[in-house]
Every structure is written in C-alpha cells, then in structure tokens.
Amino acid sequence: MKYANLARYSPWQFRDFIMERGIAIVIIGMLWGYLLIEPLRRAMGSAFAAGPRSATWPLVITVASSVASLSVLIAVNGIVSTDRKMGYYRFLFSKPISAVAYYAQLFFVCMAGVLFSMLLLAGVLRMVIPEFSILNFLLYAAVIYIAMGGIGFFISVATRFDWLTLAAVWVGSRVLRDVYGARPDWRAKAVELLPPVHKLTDVSTSMITDGAAHASDVLWLLGYGALFFALGLLILRRGSLAD
Fold first, then answer.
1. pLDDT tens digits, one per residue of 152-166
2. How far from chain centre, in Å, is Cα 124?
3. Are the CB atoms for 100 and 236 separated by under 8 Å?
C-alpha cells in the first residue's frame, strides 16, 4: 500500500510548486530577460536582430541558459531538507507512504513545473525574438534540470543548507576546472571528479541554437546528475529523515 495512493499526491505537489516556486521563477526570469535584452533592443531600434547569426545571439544564449540554471536552483532548494527542518515529514509519512517514492515523484513533478515555467518564458522571448526555438530551449532545460537538479537533490538529502551548497559546488567546480584542469599533475585528475560544468557553455549554445549537442557531453551531464539523484534516494532509504 506504500505506492498505491502515491499518484494522488502529485497534483498537490504540483500546486505547491507553482505557488512556492513557479511564480517566483517566472517573475525572476522575466525581469532578468527584460533587464538584459530590452535596453539593447531599445538602443538598437530597428537594427536590433537576435537570430543565431547575429552579434547579439550570445547574449540571448546567456540569458536563456542562466534563467534555466536559476530555475533549477529555485526548484530543488529545500526539496527534502525543508520537510526535515520543519518536521513536515511526520505528517507526510503518518500514512504508509514510501519516503523514497514520494521524493522521487516530487523531483519529477518539480521537473515538470520547471519545464512549464520555461515554456511560458520561452513563449514571451519568442515574441521578441522570432528565431528563438521554444522546443530547443525546453530540451536544454530538461538536461540542466537532471544535471544540476540531481546534485541538488543529493545535497538536500545530505545537508540542511542545500541551495547555498549547490551554488558553491556549481560555481566552485567551474573555477577549479578553469584553474587546475589544464595542469599536468594530480590536481587535474582530481578536478575530473567534480560536476562537468565546463561542458555547459558548448551544450547550451548547441542545444538552444540547433537542438543538438555532442552526445558525450550531454550523457556526461545527465549521467552525473542521475548518479547523485540515485545516491540521494539511497541515503533516504538507508537513513532517517529525523537525523
């Protein structure tokens, strides 16, 4: 019976996502895009062009990929740790519901919420930049959600300071790879264990522009995120939310 009624939770999980995270994601995404793109569009007037072959396309990629990453950070923040800190798990699991299955479902409900939010934002951006592909952007958002969200899920299970830790891991990995990645010593090998954030620039540009990227880069990102998502579920199964 642990799994029989689990699907009934999903509408409530999605509603909570919209109210607690989705609205914030859409508002922040619109403000971010407006502040970065609109001044340039006004300054250039009729000369403004932001297609894939234009000089302003890198800015569009930067805005779109940054909004996607920020949405994932908001979506997985406290996904497990909040219930543990606030004691909500006592209510949630007062009935015979598997915590592993519940949070696994919540992870993918949040993914659906992120993609829905990105669909709204991409629709607005498409009105300003007709060449912008909504489908390509959603594909990239799905990849970054698994890659970044899987790590965030693990951190939320393992610590109570998940959003700060995830941001530090994500940015720190980029910095350490840039500093030590090219050196011919043990440090270069050590940083290879860090999240493959160095792949994001090429993947975001390729996927948002053309809807495709190097398979090895995408698989590395997806595999890393999926591995840490599975580790998070393993800790949930072996540990206790009361810890």
1. 999 999 988 787 888
2. 20
3. yes
| Residue type, position 186, single letter | W
The Cβ of residue 236 has, within 10 Å, a number of other Cβ atoms equal to 20
What are the tokens at 55? Answer: 């000089």
Nearest to 25 by CA among 64, 69, 66, 74: 74
Q: How many CA atoms lie within 13 A of 155 on its CB side?
A: 20
What confidence tens digit (pLDDT) does each residue in 210-222 have?
Answer: 988 999 999 999 9
The model's pTM:
0.90
DSSP, residue by residue, the chain: -TTTTGGGGHHHHHHHHIIIIIHHHHHHHHHHHHHHHHHHHHHHGGG---STTSTTHHHHHHHHHHHHHHHHHHHHTTTTHHHHHHTTHHHHTSSS--HHHHHHHHHHHHHHHHHHHHHHHHHHHHHH-TT--HHHHHHHHHHHHHHHHHHHHHHHHH-S-HHHHHHHHHHHHHHHHHHHTTSSSHHHHHHTTS--GGGHHHHHHHHHHHS---HHHHHHHHHHHHHHHHHHHHHHHHS-TT-
Taking alpha carbons only, the member of 171, 178, 114 closest to residue 143 is 114
Residue type, 115: L
Whole-angstrom Cα distance, residue 64 to residue 214? 19
Tokens describing residue 179: 């500093």
Q: Which of 144, 139, 122, 136 is nearest to 73 (CA)?
A: 144
